[in-house]
Design goal:
Structural class: alpha/beta
Radius of gyration: 32 Å
Organism: Micromonospora antibiotica
Strand content: 15-25%
Protein name: LysR family transcriptional regulator
Number of strands: 11
Number of helices: 11
Shape: rod-shaped
Family: Belongs to the LysR transcriptional regulatory family.
Keywords: DNA-binding, Transcription, Transcription regulation
Domain HTH lysR-type: 8-65
C-alpha cells in the first residue's frame, strides 16, 4: 500500500528555494531571517518528505544532489507564484480596465456627475462604462447584493457595514426664472411664502424642511405641484412663475456642479432668508470593494468631479 502524501506547507517551499539557491544552511537561514538550527530542522523535514538528501557535504561546502538540481527552477517558480498570490493588491492601470459600474443616484446628481465621469473614463479608462440608475432600491441591500456598485447622494439609511464618505456640503437656494417677481427687491420670508412653489419628493410629499422653517415664522407656502425629480422641477420653474429649491455651494466655496442644470436653464438662484439644514452629498459602497483597484478608481473619479478645486 502506498504511503500517504507528505504534509507540506508553503513555508517548506520557501525554505527549499532558499536552500537550493544558497546551497548553505547558514546563508539560507540569514535570507529567511531565521536561525541556522531552525533551518537545519527544516532541511531534515524536506529530506524526509522528498526522500532525497538534497544537499550533501563536499569538503567545506555543500552541493546539490541531482534531484535538487532538477527541483531548483521549479521551487523558485512556485515561490514566485506564492508571492504573487499572497501579495497585497497593487495599483491598477486604468487604461487596462474593462468594467461596467452600476451607480444609483438621483436625477440631479446623475446629471451633475455623469459628464465628468464619462469624460475621465474616455481620457484615462476607455474600457469603463457606466450604468446610472434612478433611486429604485434601498441602498444597503442593493450594495450588499451587488445590484449596484456605488450610491451617490444624500446618504441616510444604510446598513451598519456600509462604507460612507462625505463629498460636499451644500445649501438650498430658491430657483426662479428671469423676470420672476421675487428677483425684484429684497427677498423676505413672507414674500417667499406668498409665492407659488413646486416641491420635489419621490414619495409625493408636499412638505419638507422649508415648510418647517416657514412655520417657525408663522408662515406657510402653497405647493402647486410635487414632482419626483429636481430636473423636472427646474424645467417647470424655468417656464412658469414657480419657485423650486436648488442645491448650491456654501458661501465662499467653489461653484457646485449640482447647480449646473439650473444655470443651463437660466434660473436665478436667490438666497433663502431662513435657516435651512445643509445638504450633504456622499457616496456609499460595500466594504468588499474597499481595496478593489477598479472600484478605487471609480471613487477617485467621483471625488474629482464633485470636489472641484477653485481653479476648475
Amino acid at each position: 500500500m502506498s504511503s500517504p502524501p507528505p504534509n507540506l506547507d508553503a513555508n517548506l517551499a520557501v525554505a527549499l528555494d532558499a536552500l537550493l539557491t544558497e546551497q548553505s544552511v547558514t546563508r539560507a537561514a540569514a535570507r529567511l531571517q531565521t536561525s541556522p538550527a531552525a533551518m537545519s530542522r527544516t532541511l531534515a523535514r524536506l529530506r524526509r518528505a522528498l526522500r532525497d538528501p538534497l544537499l550533501v557535504r563536499a569538503g567545506q561546502r555543500m552541493v546539490p544532489t541531482p534531484r535538487a538540481e532538477a527541483l531548483r527552477d521549479e521551487a523558485g517558480a512556485v515561490v514566485r507564484r506564492l508571492e504573487a498570490l499572497l501579495a497585497p493588491s497593487g495599483g491598477i492601470d486604468p487604461a487596462a480596465l474593462r468594467r461596467t459600474f452600476t451607480v444609483q443616484t438621483a436625477d440631479l446628481v446623475g446629471a451633475a456627475v455623469t459628464p465628468g465621469l464619462t469624460r475621465l473614463a474616455r481620457q484615462r479608462a476607455p474600457g469603463v462604462s457606466l450604468r446610472v440608475l434612478a433611486e429604485e432600491w434601498e441602498a444597503g441591500p442593493a450594495l450588499r447584493d451587488g445590484r449596484i456598485d456605488l450610491e451617490i447622494g444624500a446618504i441616510d439609511h444604510v446598513d451598519p457595514e456600509t462604507c460612507v464618505e462625505e463629498l460636499v456640503t451644500l445649501r438650498m437656494a430658491a430657483g426662479v426664472r428671469a423676470g420672476h417677481p421675487l428677483t425684484e427687491g429684497t427677498l423676505t420670508a413672507a414674500r417667499l411664502a406668498a409665492a407659488e412653489h413646486v416641491a420635489v419628493s419621490r414619495r409625493g410629499r408636499f412638505t419638507g424642511p422649508l415648510d418647517t422653517a416657514l412655520a417657525a415664522q408663522g408662515l406657510s407656502r402653497r405647493v402647486s405641484a410635487v414632482l419626483p425629480g429636481h430636473l423636472a422641477a427646474m424645467m417647470l420653474a424655468a417656464a412658469e412663475n414657480v419657485v423650486c429649491l436648488v442645491p448650491t455651494a456654501l458661501p465662499g466655496e467653489p461653484s457646485s456642479r449640482l447647480s449646473d442644470a439650473a444655470h443651463a436653464l437660466g434660473l436665478r438662484l436667490l438666497e433663502i432668508p431662513l435657516p435651512l439644514p445643509p445638504l450633504t452629498i456622499g457616496m456609499a459602497w460595500h466594504p468588499r470593494h474597499s481595496v478593489d483597484g477598479a472600484h478605487q478608481w471609480l471613487r477617485d473619479a467621483v471625488r474629482h468631479v464633485l470636489r472641484p478645486t477653485r481653479e476648475e
